[in-house]
Amino acid sequence: MSDTWPRAVLFDLDGTLIDSAPDLHASINILLMRRGLGPLSLPDVVSMIGNGVKKLVERAFIAVGHPLDADELDLEYEAMIGIYADHLTVLTVLTPGAREIVEELHAQGVLMGVVTNKPQMPTEAILDHFGLSPYLDAVIGGDSGVEKKPAPDMIFAALDRLGLRPEDAVLVGDSVADVGSARAAGIPVIALRGGYTSVPVDEIGADIVIDGLADLLATLAGMRPA
Questions:
Q1: Which is catalytic among the residues 3, 12, 207, 211?
Q2: Which residue among 40, 68, 154, 204 is buried most deeply as judged by most CB within 10 Å?
Q3: Which H or E run includes 185?
């Protein structure tokens, strides 16, 4: 398969390869309750995931009626990073089929990368914890120095690291930001049902929506150019 399309599959992380919402929910509520605010429900927090931890913090404080100015947001973001560092894999689990699809794509010679708005350190720590790092050829986090999704820069950075062009790759994600990033980069995008999106997944504009990662291989085969 290494000589056929796709030569690379790029994955989003949260809501795609991992279900991190329970740990993010616990961490943001610790942050809020230290300030005498909150708590927020799990569905509330899920609806806020997708544009990085700093945006999650901003949205959470707005949701509890305490919007932050820029300096306050910087301070609360740093506090959140510290809290979350202690809760990266307490409740987080792999998405069903994640390990199997990564192992199978690797066995077939397909290059893989992760492009996520989550900061680099927790991203790498989570991937290491679940044993996925050895299978990945590029990991681009939200503080890696390029503009976050929905800009295309993270995809371009991953492709550059892989030595590939946009026409060689596909993105698998779960959100509007993922679709926007893929569209801007000029690569196809597959959306995973059951991820983190405040917009119904069938309406976010992906080329194809799949029910689970177990469907990915067949979907890729069906998308392959004749």
A1: 12
A2: 154
A3: helix 176-185
Binned at pLDDT 50, 70 and 90, residue 166 comes out as very high
- Tell me the per-residue pLDDT of 9-56, one tens digit each, with 9 for 90 and over: 999 999 999 999 999 999 999 999 999 998 999 999 999 998 889 999
| 44 labelled ligand-binding | no
Active site residue 12: yes
**Structure tokens of 83?**
């809290």
- Residue 144 has a CB neighbour count (10 Å cut-off) of 17
Contact present, 45 and 28 (Cβ < 8 Å): yes
Is residue 152's pLDDT more than 90?
yes
Report H helices in 20-175.
21-34, 42-46, 53-63, 70-85, 98-107, 120-129, 153-162
Tell me the C-alpha distance between 138 and 72, whole Å: 33
Domains of the chain: 8-17+95-223 (3.40.50.1000), 20-86 (1.10.150.240)
User: Does 12 appear as a known binding residue?
Assistant: yes
The pLDDT score that the predictor gives to residue 204 is 96
199 vs 205: CA distance, rounded Å:
10
Q: Binding residue per annotation — 14?
A: yes
Q: What percentage of the chain exceeds 90 in pLDDT?
A: 92
Q: Give the model confidence (pLDDT) of 58-80 as tens digits.
A: 999 999 999 999 999 999 999 99
